[in-house]
Amino acid sequence: MKISSGIDSIEISRLAEINSSIRKRFIARVFTPAEIAQARDRNDALSGLFAAKESVSKALGTGIGRVHWQDIEILHLPTGQPSLKLHGNAKFVADQLGLSDWSVSISHDRTKAVAIAVAIGT
């Protein structure tokens, strides 16, 4: 059995302080349309998703670059639990590594968002 993990944190103010002239482009580049709709432009939600994407990319051992932002999609189930779907290069890398089962957790307080991703496989 193989286990891989990644963790990331971000100050929520970083997203809140993005210049308004580039914010829309930044959000469209980083987040999928479904993530954008679910976050409803809330900085805490977007920060949590950002940290989760970074966590997954670290668990894959690639970071963001070889794996693109939108290759990693985090949507919340009706229970509020984050659910991961991999696309493109992220799915390819996970398949190559034999990582098939994932767990993602996101938390935030007033100033920070943090996320962890854990994957297991063969």
CATH top level class name: Alpha Beta
Percent strand = 25-35%
Helix/strand class: alpha+beta
> Level of helix content?
40-55%
Oligomer description? single chain
CATH superfamily: 4'-phosphopantetheinyl transferase domain
Q: Let me know the number of strands.
A: 5
Distance between the termini: 5 Å
- The strands making up the biggest β-sheet line up spatially as 1-5-4
H/E element string? EHHHHEEHEE
Mean pLDDT: 96
Low-confidence stretches: none
What's the story with the biggest beta sheet?
Answer: 3 strands, antiparallel
What does this structure look like?
With about 120 residues, the protein is of the alpha+beta class. It has one domain: Ribosomal Protein L22, Chain A. Helix content is about 40%, strand content about 35%. It contains five helices and five strands. The strands form two sheets. The protein has a three-stranded antiparallel β-sheet. Strands 2-3 form a two-stranded antiparallel ribbon. The protein is globular and about 45 Å long. The mean pLDDT is about 95.
